[in-house]
Amino acid sequence: MRAKLDIDLEDAITGGTKRIAFSDGRTIDVNIPKGASEGQVLRLRGQGSPGAAGAGDALIELAIRPHPVFRREGDTLVMDLPISVPDAVLGAKVEAQTPEGAVSLTVPKGSNSGSTLRLKGRGLPLPGGAGRGDLLARLLIMLPDGPDPELEKFAEKWRKDRPYAPRRKG
Known about the structure:
Blueprint: E1 2-7, H1 9-14, E2 16-21, E3 27-32, E4 41-44, E5 50-51, E6 54-55, E7 58-64, E8 70-73, E9 76-84, H2 85-90, E10 92-98, E11 101-107, E12 116-119, E13 135-142, H3 149-161
Parallel strand pairs: 1-7, 9-13
Antiparallel strand pairs: 2-3, 4-7, 5-6, 8-9, 10-11, 12-13
């Protein structure tokens, strides 16, 4: 007997138990291992359809629902971390979400959009219980909502006094 079980990313990280219902009306509890992956098949011995030699195995394929914050890349979790222009220019302590809750991260002075901060050991469990992967926070510099005349005036002066075109580097 085969079935597909949709789980949340948090279930794949922490493991746990999920109940699944089969077409014949039976329900069973499925133990999700820590670090479970998309497409992983769990074999539940003796939980399948009855046959001449007794009950067969149930094969449960795991499907991980998309998460609103994190993306999985192997044992690494990746997220986008929006920061303000002053945080990027001056550096700052900002709050970032992890699967275990919020943590404080230091954004280095002069950070660019696309720069990555690494949170060691905050990703998915490694095979064999050998620790955890990392969480990578990709910085995204965000402008304020709506027009900001003071910021526009500063940018005009900056462009006039200090010509800078990153597209022309190298």
